[in-house]
Amino acid sequence: MRLGLTPEHKQFGDAVAGLLETRGGAEDLWERLAELGVPAVLVAEEYEGAGGDEVDLVAVLEQAGRAALGEPVVEAAVAARLLAGIGGELAAEWLPKLASGEALVVAAPGPYVPHADRAGLVLVGQDGAWYAVRPEPGSLTVQKSVDPLRRLSAVPVPEGAVPVAEGALAAEAVDRGAALTAVQLVGVARRLVDLAVRYAGERSQYGRPIGSFQGLQHQIANALVDVEFARPAAYKAAYALAKGEPEASLDASGAKALASDAALHAAKVSLQVHGAIGYTMELDLHHWLRRAWSLASAWGDASHHRRAVAATLLG
After folding, report:
1. What are phi and psi of 146, to 5 degrees?
2. Acyl-CoA dehydrogenase/oxidase C-terminal domain: from which residue to which, for each copy (predicted)?
3. Is 244 helix (H, G, I), strand (E, B) or coil?
4. Distance CA 64, CA 84 (A)
5. Please, where are the H alpha helices in the chain?
6. Apex 263 CA angle, 63 and 261, nearest 5
7. CA distance 197 to 191
8. Which of 3, 4, 102, 193 is most buried, judging by how many CB atoms fall within 10 Å of its CB?
9. What is the pTM of this model?
10. Spatial distance between the Cα atoms of 121 and 136, rounded to a whole number of angstroms
C-alpha cells in the first residue's frame, strides 16, 4: 500500500491551488474548476469524465481546504459516484453535464444541502436512502448559517418519492462524503496552524514576538500534531474507497473523527493566538474558522463517527 501522492496528483493540486490563489473570489469559480477537470474526476469515461478515483482528488481537496474554498467539490464527487451506481437515464442525463460543468449536481444528507439553490439535480440523503430532487429555479431559500460561502437550502423530499439508492450504495455515499470532507478539513486545519505561526512571528509583546513564548509554542505544536495525525488517516480513507476495501467505512469514520477534531483544535488555537482581532472581519482568519466549523459537522461530526468506529470494532 502506498499512501503518498504521485507527481501527477501533486501537479493537479498545484494547478487548483494556483487557480484559487488568483481567482478565489470569482463568481465563475465553479466553471474554472470544471475547465481544470475537477468535477469530472469521479465521472467514468463513458459519461465524458476522467475515470479517476478518490485518490485522484486528495491533493485537490487538501488545496481546497487550504484556500477555504466554499464550492461543493465533495458534494459533486459524491453525486458522481451515486449517479454511476444508480445508472440508467438519470446517470446518462446528468453525469456528462456534471463532468463538463454544464450543470451542477450535489449530494448531501438532508434536510439542508450545500449549494442546492444553484444545482440542476440534488440527491438528498434521508433515513438511509437517497432521493433525486430537481429544484425549480428560485424555489429554494438559502438559510442563515455560520458559513455563508457554503450556502444551505432546505430540500424537502416529495411525499411518496421513491428512493433512487438504498442499502450498500447509499451507505457508501455517506462514507465517501465523510472521507473526502476529512481530506478537505486537513487542508483547512493546516492553513489555520500556518496562520497562527505567521501571526505569532509578527505580533510583539514585552519587546519580543509572542511566538517566542513557550506556552504559545506548545499550543501551536499540539495543533500541528493533530493535523499530521489526521492526514494519513484521511489519505487511507480515500485509498480504501478507491480500492473498494472491506474496511472502507471504518476508515472513513476514523478519518472524519480525527480531521474534525484537528480542524476544531487548530481553529481554537489560531483564534487564541490572534486574540481579539481574530474575531473581526478585518482579518481573513474568519474564512478558515467558518470552514472548520461547518465542515467539522458536515457528513457527521467527530462524536458521530467515533460511535460508528466503536460500533464496528465492538460488533
Report:
1. -70, -20
2. 169-313
3. coil
4. 24
5. 7-23, 29-36, 55-66, 73-86, 88-100, 167-202, 214-243, 248-274, 285-297, 302-314
6. 135
7. 10
8. 193
9. 0.96
10. 10
215-216-221 Cα angle (round to 5): 100
Give 10-residue mean pLDDT values along the chain (315 residues): 83 96 80 97 97 98 96 98 98 98 96 95 97 89 90 92 97 98 98 97 90 93 98 97 97 98 98 92 93 97 98 92
Q: At what angle do helices 167-202 and 55-66 cross, to 10 degrees?
A: 40
Q: 130-133: which pairs have CB atoms within 8 A and are 24 or more residues apart?
A: 130/82, 130/163, 130/164, 130/165, 130/166, 130/169, 130/170, 130/173, 131/157, 131/158, 131/161, 131/162, 131/163, 131/164, 132/90, 132/164, 133/157, 133/158, 133/161
| Residue type for position 45 | E
Residues 250 and 247: their CA atoms lie apart, in Å, by 5
- Nearest residue to 176 (alpha-carbon basis) of 294, 290, 83: 83
Q: What spatial distance separates the first Cα and last Cα of the chain, rounded to whole Å?
A: 26
- Compute CA distances 285 → 91, 93, 291, 292, whole Å: 40, 41, 10, 11
CA nearest 198: which of 292, 273, 276?
Answer: 273
The cell numbers describing 29, all together, are 469559480
DSSP character for 27?
T
Q: Verify cis geometry, omega within 30 degrees of 0, for the bond prior to 111.
A: yes
